Protein backbone atom coordinates (compact mmCIF):
# COMPACT_ATOMS: atom_id res chain seq x y z
CA UNK A 1 0.00 0.00 0.00
CA UNK A 2 1.23 3.49 -0.76
CA UNK A 3 2.34 5.44 2.30
CA UNK A 4 0.06 8.28 1.22
CA UNK A 5 -2.98 6.03 1.76
CA UNK A 6 -1.95 4.78 5.17
CA UNK A 7 -4.00 6.19 8.05
CA UNK A 8 -2.23 7.78 10.99
CA UNK A 9 -2.28 5.45 13.99
CA UNK A 10 -1.38 7.52 17.06
CA UNK A 11 -3.65 5.67 19.45
CA UNK A 12 -0.78 4.96 21.86
CA UNK A 13 -0.66 8.66 22.80
CA UNK A 14 -3.13 10.49 25.01
CA UNK A 15 -3.83 7.63 27.45
CA UNK A 16 -1.14 8.28 30.08
CA UNK A 17 -2.28 9.31 33.58
CA UNK A 18 -1.78 12.95 34.51
CA UNK A 19 1.15 12.26 36.84
CA UNK A 20 3.01 10.44 34.05
CA UNK A 21 2.39 13.36 31.67
CA UNK A 22 3.86 15.69 34.30
CA UNK A 23 6.93 13.45 34.67
CA UNK A 24 7.46 13.43 30.91
CA UNK A 25 7.09 17.21 30.69
CA UNK A 26 9.58 17.72 33.51
CA UNK A 27 11.98 15.32 31.80
CA UNK A 28 11.76 17.28 28.52
CA UNK A 29 12.41 20.55 30.38
CA UNK A 30 15.31 19.03 32.34
CA UNK A 31 16.78 17.51 29.18
CA UNK A 32 16.85 20.91 27.48
CA UNK A 33 18.30 22.72 30.51
CA UNK A 34 21.03 20.15 31.19
CA UNK A 35 21.94 20.01 27.50
CA UNK A 36 22.16 23.81 27.38
CA UNK A 37 24.39 23.96 30.47
CA UNK A 38 26.65 21.32 29.00
CA UNK A 39 26.67 22.90 25.53
CA UNK A 40 27.84 26.27 26.85
CA UNK A 41 30.81 24.72 28.64
CA UNK A 42 31.52 22.44 25.70
CA UNK A 43 31.46 25.36 23.29
CA UNK A 44 33.90 27.38 25.37
CA UNK A 45 36.18 24.38 25.78
CA UNK A 46 36.16 23.45 22.08
CA UNK A 47 36.69 27.03 20.88
CA UNK A 48 39.52 27.43 23.40
CA UNK A 49 41.10 24.22 22.10
CA UNK A 50 40.82 25.50 18.52
CA UNK A 51 42.46 28.80 19.51
CA UNK A 52 45.18 27.18 21.67
CA UNK A 53 43.72 28.51 24.92
CA UNK A 54 42.82 26.81 28.19
CA UNK A 55 39.17 27.73 28.46
CA UNK A 56 37.07 27.62 31.66
CA UNK A 57 38.81 25.72 34.44
CA UNK A 58 37.83 27.41 37.71
CA UNK A 59 34.24 26.45 38.57
CA UNK A 60 33.76 22.77 39.29
CA UNK A 61 35.88 19.87 38.03
CA UNK A 62 37.48 20.80 34.69
CA UNK A 63 35.37 23.97 34.69
CA UNK A 64 32.14 22.02 34.06
CA UNK A 65 30.09 24.34 36.30
CA UNK A 66 31.11 27.49 34.45
CA UNK A 67 27.75 27.90 32.67
CA UNK A 68 25.89 27.48 35.98
CA UNK A 69 28.08 30.16 37.54
CA UNK A 70 27.41 32.46 34.59
CA UNK A 71 23.67 31.99 35.03
CA UNK A 72 23.84 32.81 38.74
CA UNK A 73 25.97 35.87 37.99
CA UNK A 74 23.43 37.17 35.43
CA UNK A 75 20.53 36.70 37.84
CA UNK A 76 22.32 38.67 40.58
CA UNK A 77 23.10 41.62 38.32
CA UNK A 78 21.08 44.83 38.49
CA UNK A 79 17.96 44.67 36.34
CA UNK A 80 17.58 47.93 34.41
CA UNK A 81 14.66 49.22 32.35
CA UNK A 82 15.53 52.07 29.99
CA UNK A 83 13.34 55.19 30.16
CA UNK A 84 12.37 55.30 26.49
CA UNK A 85 11.27 51.65 26.41
CA UNK A 86 7.72 50.42 26.07
CA UNK A 87 7.85 48.74 29.46
CA UNK A 88 5.14 46.10 28.97
CA UNK A 89 6.49 44.86 25.63
CA UNK A 90 10.07 45.31 26.89
CA UNK A 91 9.45 42.88 29.77
CA UNK A 92 7.34 40.40 27.78
CA UNK A 93 9.79 40.11 24.83
CA UNK A 94 12.29 37.74 26.58
CA UNK A 95 9.39 35.55 27.71
CA UNK A 96 7.96 35.39 24.19
CA UNK A 97 11.41 34.42 22.87
CA UNK A 98 12.08 31.74 25.51
CA UNK A 99 8.77 29.88 25.89
CA UNK A 100 8.37 28.72 22.23
CA UNK A 101 11.92 27.38 22.34
CA UNK A 102 10.81 24.84 24.98
CA UNK A 103 7.53 23.88 23.29
CA UNK A 104 8.90 22.16 20.19
CA UNK A 105 10.54 19.35 22.18
CA UNK A 106 7.09 18.02 23.14
CA UNK A 107 6.68 16.13 19.84
CA UNK A 108 10.26 14.86 19.50
CA UNK A 109 10.51 11.05 20.00
CA UNK A 110 13.28 9.90 22.34
CA UNK A 111 12.46 6.24 21.69
CA UNK A 112 9.96 3.90 19.98
CA UNK A 113 6.31 4.92 19.96
CA UNK A 114 5.16 1.61 21.43
CA UNK A 115 4.95 0.80 25.14
CA UNK A 116 8.70 0.22 25.39
CA UNK A 117 9.56 1.45 28.89
CA UNK A 118 8.01 1.14 32.32
CA UNK A 119 7.74 4.12 34.69
CA UNK A 120 6.45 3.16 38.15
CA UNK A 121 4.82 0.08 36.63
CA UNK A 122 3.09 1.93 33.82
CA UNK A 123 4.10 1.10 30.23
CA UNK A 124 4.48 4.15 28.05
CA UNK A 125 6.21 5.58 24.98
CA UNK A 126 9.41 7.63 25.18
CA UNK A 127 7.68 10.73 23.82
CA UNK A 128 5.51 13.34 25.47
CA UNK A 129 2.95 13.38 22.66
CA UNK A 130 2.62 13.21 18.90
CA UNK A 131 0.38 14.83 16.31
CA UNK A 132 -0.58 13.98 12.72
CA UNK A 133 0.89 17.41 11.83
CA UNK A 134 3.72 17.45 14.38
CA UNK A 135 6.24 19.01 11.95
CA UNK A 136 3.84 21.86 11.15
CA UNK A 137 3.52 22.40 14.91
CA UNK A 138 7.32 22.71 15.13
CA UNK A 139 7.40 25.22 12.27
CA UNK A 140 4.62 27.26 13.89
CA UNK A 141 6.32 27.33 17.27
CA UNK A 142 9.65 28.34 15.70
CA UNK A 143 7.90 31.19 13.89
CA UNK A 144 6.39 32.53 17.12
CA UNK A 145 9.82 32.78 18.76
CA UNK A 146 10.94 35.44 16.29
CA UNK A 147 8.30 37.82 17.67
CA UNK A 148 10.24 38.02 20.93
CA UNK A 149 13.38 39.20 19.15
CA UNK A 150 11.55 41.71 16.95
CA UNK A 151 9.57 43.12 19.88
CA UNK A 152 12.71 43.37 22.00
CA UNK A 153 14.42 45.44 19.33
CA UNK A 154 11.41 47.71 18.84
CA UNK A 155 10.46 48.19 22.50
CA UNK A 156 13.98 49.18 23.62
CA UNK A 157 13.62 52.65 22.12
CA UNK A 158 17.13 52.56 20.69
CA UNK A 159 18.48 52.48 17.16
CA UNK A 160 20.85 49.50 17.37
CA UNK A 161 18.36 47.06 18.94
CA UNK A 162 15.80 48.10 16.31
CA UNK A 163 18.26 47.31 13.51
CA UNK A 164 19.03 43.95 15.11
CA UNK A 165 15.33 43.10 15.35
CA UNK A 166 14.73 44.02 11.71
CA UNK A 167 17.72 41.96 10.60
CA UNK A 168 16.48 38.98 12.57
CA UNK A 169 12.97 39.25 11.10
CA UNK A 170 14.26 39.37 7.52
CA UNK A 171 16.69 36.52 8.20
CA UNK A 172 14.03 34.24 9.70
CA UNK A 173 11.60 34.84 6.84
CA UNK A 174 14.29 34.14 4.25
CA UNK A 175 15.49 30.89 5.75
CA UNK A 176 12.15 29.44 6.90
CA UNK A 177 11.00 29.13 3.27
CA UNK A 178 13.92 26.88 2.36
CA UNK A 179 13.49 24.99 5.64
CA UNK A 180 9.84 24.27 4.82
CA UNK A 181 10.82 22.96 1.37
CA UNK A 182 13.40 20.65 2.99
CA UNK A 183 10.68 19.35 5.34
CA UNK A 184 8.33 18.75 2.41
CA UNK A 185 10.82 16.35 0.81
CA UNK A 186 10.84 14.29 4.00
CA UNK A 187 7.02 14.30 4.07
CA UNK A 188 6.94 12.91 0.52
CA UNK A 189 9.23 10.00 1.39
CA UNK A 190 7.74 9.19 4.79
CA UNK A 191 4.10 9.78 3.85
CA UNK A 192 3.49 11.47 7.20
CA UNK A 193 4.08 14.65 9.18
CA UNK A 194 4.15 12.75 12.47
CA UNK A 195 7.62 12.63 14.01
CA UNK A 196 7.22 9.07 15.29
CA UNK A 197 6.07 7.86 11.86
CA UNK A 198 8.98 9.62 10.15
CA UNK A 199 11.43 7.76 12.38
CA UNK A 200 9.64 4.46 11.72
CA UNK A 201 10.03 4.98 7.95
CA UNK A 202 13.81 5.08 8.43
CA UNK A 203 14.04 1.52 9.74
CA UNK A 204 16.10 0.31 6.77
CA UNK A 205 17.71 3.49 5.44
CA UNK A 206 18.12 6.94 6.94
CA UNK A 207 16.78 9.88 4.97
CA UNK A 208 20.21 11.52 4.90
CA UNK A 209 21.10 8.89 2.28
CA UNK A 210 17.88 9.30 0.29
CA UNK A 211 17.62 13.09 0.62
CA UNK A 212 21.17 14.47 0.97
CA UNK A 213 20.30 17.83 -0.61
CA UNK A 214 17.42 18.33 1.83
CA UNK A 215 19.76 17.55 4.72
CA UNK A 216 22.34 20.11 3.55
CA UNK A 217 19.65 22.76 3.04
CA UNK A 218 18.24 22.14 6.50
CA UNK A 219 21.69 22.27 8.11
CA UNK A 220 22.30 25.71 6.57
CA UNK A 221 18.84 27.00 7.44
CA UNK A 222 18.99 25.80 11.04
CA UNK A 223 22.20 27.82 11.55
CA UNK A 224 20.43 30.86 10.13
CA UNK A 225 17.30 30.25 12.21
CA UNK A 226 19.25 30.17 15.47
CA UNK A 227 21.28 33.34 14.64
CA UNK A 228 24.54 31.49 15.09
CA UNK A 229 27.89 32.28 13.48
CA UNK A 230 28.54 32.81 10.63
CA UNK A 231 24.91 34.04 10.37
CA UNK A 232 24.76 35.99 13.66
CA UNK A 233 23.71 39.22 11.95
CA UNK A 234 21.03 40.26 14.50
CA UNK A 235 23.61 40.54 17.30
CA UNK A 236 26.82 41.39 15.46
CA UNK A 237 28.96 43.29 17.95
CA UNK A 238 31.05 45.02 15.30
CA UNK A 239 28.24 47.19 13.89
CA UNK A 240 25.27 46.78 16.26
CA UNK A 241 27.01 46.70 19.67
CA UNK A 242 25.07 43.53 20.52
CA UNK A 243 21.91 43.83 18.46
CA UNK A 244 18.39 43.36 19.73
CA UNK A 245 19.48 42.61 23.33
CA UNK A 246 21.73 45.67 23.76
CA UNK A 247 19.42 47.37 26.28
CA UNK A 248 18.74 44.21 28.31
CA UNK A 249 20.48 43.06 31.49
CA UNK A 250 20.23 40.54 34.30
CA UNK A 251 17.60 37.80 34.02
CA UNK A 252 16.00 39.19 30.84
CA UNK A 253 19.33 39.08 29.02
CA UNK A 254 19.88 35.54 30.34
CA UNK A 255 16.51 34.47 28.90
CA UNK A 256 17.56 35.58 25.42
CA UNK A 257 20.78 33.57 25.70
CA UNK A 258 18.81 30.60 27.06
CA UNK A 259 16.37 30.80 24.13
CA UNK A 260 19.25 30.78 21.64
CA UNK A 261 20.85 27.65 23.09
CA UNK A 262 17.52 25.88 23.56
CA UNK A 263 16.75 26.58 19.90
CA UNK A 264 20.11 25.01 19.02
CA UNK A 265 19.13 21.84 20.89
CA UNK A 266 15.65 21.83 19.31
CA UNK A 267 16.82 22.19 15.70
CA UNK A 268 19.49 19.54 16.33
CA UNK A 269 16.82 17.17 17.66
CA UNK A 270 14.63 17.87 14.62
CA UNK A 271 17.56 17.22 12.28
CA UNK A 272 18.33 13.93 14.01
CA UNK A 273 14.65 12.93 13.82
CA UNK A 274 14.15 13.77 10.15
CA UNK A 275 17.45 12.71 8.60
CA UNK A 276 19.57 10.66 11.04
CA UNK A 277 17.13 7.95 12.04
CA UNK A 278 16.01 9.63 15.26
CA UNK A 279 16.45 7.26 18.19
CA UNK A 280 17.63 4.34 16.01
CA UNK A 281 21.08 2.90 16.56
CA UNK A 282 23.74 3.52 13.88
CA UNK A 283 24.20 0.93 11.16
CA UNK A 284 27.07 -1.20 12.50
CA UNK A 285 25.46 -1.54 15.93
CA UNK A 286 21.92 -2.28 14.74
CA UNK A 287 23.08 -5.17 12.53
CA UNK A 288 24.69 -7.39 15.19
CA UNK A 289 22.75 -6.26 18.31
CA UNK A 290 19.02 -6.96 18.21
CA UNK A 291 18.29 -5.07 21.44
CA UNK A 292 19.96 -1.82 20.39
CA UNK A 293 16.62 -0.21 19.53
CA UNK A 294 14.70 -1.39 22.61
CA UNK A 295 14.46 -0.34 26.23
CA UNK A 296 16.39 2.75 27.30
CA UNK A 297 19.13 2.38 24.69
CA UNK A 298 17.38 4.53 22.03
CA UNK A 299 17.73 7.51 24.37
CA UNK A 300 21.52 7.10 24.23
CA UNK A 301 21.67 7.04 20.43
CA UNK A 302 19.41 10.09 20.24
CA UNK A 303 21.54 12.09 22.69
CA UNK A 304 24.74 11.18 20.83
CA UNK A 305 23.29 12.41 17.52
CA UNK A 306 22.12 15.67 19.10
CA UNK A 307 25.54 16.27 20.65
CA UNK A 308 27.27 15.68 17.32
CA UNK A 309 25.04 18.28 15.68
CA UNK A 310 25.74 20.71 18.54
CA UNK A 311 29.44 20.16 17.93
CA UNK A 312 28.79 21.17 14.33
CA UNK A 313 27.43 24.52 15.58
CA UNK A 314 30.54 25.02 17.72
CA UNK A 315 32.84 24.00 14.88
CA UNK A 316 31.28 26.58 12.57
CA UNK A 317 31.64 29.33 15.16
CA UNK A 318 35.31 28.58 15.69
CA UNK A 319 36.08 28.21 11.96
CA UNK A 320 34.10 30.61 9.76
CA UNK A 321 34.05 34.41 10.00
CA UNK A 322 30.81 36.36 10.01
CA UNK A 323 29.42 36.97 6.52
CA UNK A 324 28.11 40.31 5.29
CA UNK A 325 24.39 40.94 5.49
CA UNK A 326 23.99 41.11 1.71
CA UNK A 327 25.76 37.74 1.41
CA UNK A 328 23.40 36.30 4.02
CA UNK A 329 20.28 37.44 2.16
CA UNK A 330 21.67 36.42 -1.22
CA UNK A 331 22.31 32.91 0.06
CA UNK A 332 18.78 32.65 1.43
CA UNK A 333 16.81 34.07 -1.52
CA UNK A 334 18.98 33.36 -4.56
CA UNK A 335 20.55 30.02 -3.62
CA UNK A 336 18.69 28.08 -0.94
CA UNK A 337 15.11 28.80 -2.03
CA UNK A 338 15.62 28.00 -5.77
CA UNK A 339 17.67 24.88 -4.98
CA UNK A 340 15.14 23.65 -2.41
CA UNK A 341 12.18 24.18 -4.78
CA UNK A 342 13.91 22.41 -7.70
CA UNK A 343 14.95 19.55 -5.41
CA UNK A 344 11.40 19.26 -4.07
CA UNK A 345 10.02 18.99 -7.61
CA UNK A 346 12.61 16.32 -8.38
CA UNK A 347 11.73 14.33 -5.26
CA UNK A 348 8.02 14.61 -6.01
CA UNK A 349 8.61 13.32 -9.56
CA UNK A 350 10.61 10.34 -8.33
CA UNK A 351 8.01 9.46 -5.70
CA UNK A 352 5.18 9.70 -8.24
CA UNK A 353 7.00 7.37 -10.64
CA UNK A 354 7.79 4.94 -7.82
CA UNK A 355 4.12 4.83 -6.86
CA UNK A 356 3.36 3.88 -10.48
CA UNK A 357 5.72 0.88 -10.05
CA UNK A 358 8.46 2.20 -12.31
CA UNK A 359 11.87 0.59 -11.79
CA UNK A 360 14.93 2.44 -10.54
CA UNK A 361 16.57 2.38 -13.98
CA UNK A 362 13.45 3.76 -15.63
CA UNK A 363 13.45 6.68 -13.18
CA UNK A 364 17.18 7.39 -12.92
CA UNK A 365 17.80 7.82 -16.65
CA UNK A 366 15.12 10.50 -17.35
CA UNK A 367 15.90 12.35 -14.12
CA UNK A 368 19.64 12.36 -14.83
CA UNK A 369 18.94 13.53 -18.39
CA UNK A 370 16.75 16.38 -17.12
CA UNK A 371 19.36 17.51 -14.58
CA UNK A 372 22.11 17.35 -17.22
CA UNK A 373 19.98 19.35 -19.67
CA UNK A 374 19.33 21.98 -17.02
CA UNK A 375 23.05 22.27 -16.26
CA UNK A 376 23.95 22.59 -19.96
CA UNK A 377 21.31 25.27 -20.48
CA UNK A 378 22.55 27.25 -17.50
CA UNK A 379 26.13 26.97 -18.79
CA UNK A 380 25.11 28.22 -22.25
CA UNK A 381 23.17 31.14 -20.77
CA UNK A 382 26.13 32.14 -18.61
CA UNK A 383 28.49 31.90 -21.60
CA UNK A 384 26.33 34.18 -23.78
CA UNK A 385 25.90 36.57 -20.87
CA UNK A 386 29.66 36.87 -20.43
CA UNK A 387 30.13 37.48 -24.17
CA UNK A 388 27.49 40.20 -24.09
CA UNK A 389 29.30 41.91 -21.25
CA UNK A 390 32.60 41.74 -23.11
CA UNK A 391 31.00 43.20 -26.26
CA UNK A 392 29.72 46.23 -24.42
CA UNK A 393 32.00 49.22 -24.59
CA UNK A 394 33.41 49.97 -21.16
CA UNK A 395 31.93 53.18 -19.83
CA UNK A 396 34.40 55.83 -18.80
CA UNK A 397 34.40 56.04 -15.05
CA UNK A 398 35.03 59.43 -13.42
CA UNK A 399 38.33 59.86 -11.69
CA UNK A 400 38.32 58.83 -8.05
CA UNK A 401 38.09 61.79 -5.70
CA UNK A 402 39.09 60.82 -2.18
CA UNK A 403 37.77 64.14 -0.79
CA UNK A 404 34.37 64.13 -2.54
CA UNK A 405 32.42 63.80 0.70
CA UNK A 406 34.47 66.38 2.58
CA UNK A 407 36.72 63.82 4.26
CA UNK A 408 39.20 61.25 2.94
CA UNK A 409 37.73 57.88 2.01
CA UNK A 410 39.58 54.71 0.86
CA UNK A 411 39.23 53.62 -2.77
CA UNK A 412 36.86 50.83 -3.80
CA UNK A 413 38.16 47.76 -5.70
CA UNK A 414 39.28 48.89 -9.16
CA UNK A 415 39.79 52.51 -8.16
CA UNK A 416 43.21 54.09 -7.75
CA UNK A 417 44.26 56.98 -5.59
CA UNK A 418 45.56 60.05 -7.45
CA UNK A 419 49.32 60.65 -7.22
CA UNK A 420 50.38 62.40 -4.05
CA UNK A 421 52.32 65.66 -4.59
CA UNK A 422 55.41 66.36 -2.51
CA UNK A 423 58.38 68.71 -2.62
CA UNK A 424 61.97 67.77 -3.44
CA UNK A 425 64.98 69.86 -2.36
CA UNK A 426 67.00 71.42 -5.18
CA UNK A 427 70.39 72.97 -5.47
CA UNK A 428 70.39 76.52 -4.23
CA UNK A 429 67.98 75.90 -1.35
CA UNK A 430 64.72 75.98 -3.38
CA UNK A 431 62.13 73.18 -3.25
CA UNK A 432 60.37 71.82 -6.32
CA UNK A 433 56.82 70.40 -6.24
CA UNK A 434 56.83 66.91 -7.78
CA UNK A 435 54.39 64.00 -8.01
CA UNK A 436 55.19 60.78 -6.15
CA UNK A 437 55.82 58.04 -8.66
CA UNK A 438 56.04 60.49 -11.57
CA UNK A 439 58.73 60.56 -14.24
CA UNK A 440 60.67 63.32 -12.48
CA UNK A 441 61.03 61.49 -9.18
CA UNK A 442 64.52 60.32 -10.10
CA UNK A 443 66.52 62.72 -12.27
CA UNK A 444 69.76 61.89 -14.05
CA UNK A 445 70.15 58.67 -12.09
CA UNK A 446 70.59 60.57 -8.81
CA UNK A 447 68.16 59.88 -5.97
CA UNK A 448 66.48 62.52 -3.86
CA UNK A 449 68.63 61.68 -0.90
CA UNK A 450 71.80 62.07 -2.94
CA UNK A 451 70.68 65.48 -4.21
CA UNK A 452 69.80 66.55 -0.70
CA UNK A 453 73.26 65.63 0.51
CA UNK A 454 74.85 67.47 -2.38
CA UNK A 455 72.75 70.58 -1.67
Automatic annotation (TrEMBL):
It comes from Streptomyces nodosus. GO terms for cellular component: plasma membrane. This is NADH-quinone oxidoreductase subunit H. Residues 408-420 have a biased composition (Pro residues). NDH-1 shuttles electrons from NADH, via FMN and iron-sulfur (Fe-S) centers, to quinones in the respiratory chain. The immediate electron acceptor for the enzyme in this species is believed to be ubiquinone. Couples the redox reaction to proton translocation (for every two electrons transferred, four hydrogen ions are translocated across the cytoplasmic membrane), and thus conserves the redox energy in a proton gradient. This subunit may bind ubiquinone. It is found in: Cell membrane; Membrane. The chain crosses the membrane at residues 18-42, 88-111, 131-154, 175-194, 206-224, 261-279, 299-319, 331-351, 363-381. Pfam families: NADHdh.
Amino acid sequence: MSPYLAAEDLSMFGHDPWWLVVIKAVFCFAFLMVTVLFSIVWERKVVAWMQLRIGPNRHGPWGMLQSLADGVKLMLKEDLVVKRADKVVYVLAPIVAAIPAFMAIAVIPFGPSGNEISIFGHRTAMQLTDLPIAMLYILAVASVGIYGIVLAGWSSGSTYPLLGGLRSCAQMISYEIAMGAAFASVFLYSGSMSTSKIVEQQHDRWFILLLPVSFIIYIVTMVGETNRAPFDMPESEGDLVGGFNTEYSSIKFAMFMLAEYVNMVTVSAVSATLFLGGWRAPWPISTFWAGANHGWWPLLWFVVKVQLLLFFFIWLRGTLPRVRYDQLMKLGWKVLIPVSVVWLMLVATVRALRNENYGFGDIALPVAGGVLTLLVLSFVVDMFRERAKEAEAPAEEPAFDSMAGGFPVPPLPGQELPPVPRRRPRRGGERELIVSGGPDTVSDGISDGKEASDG
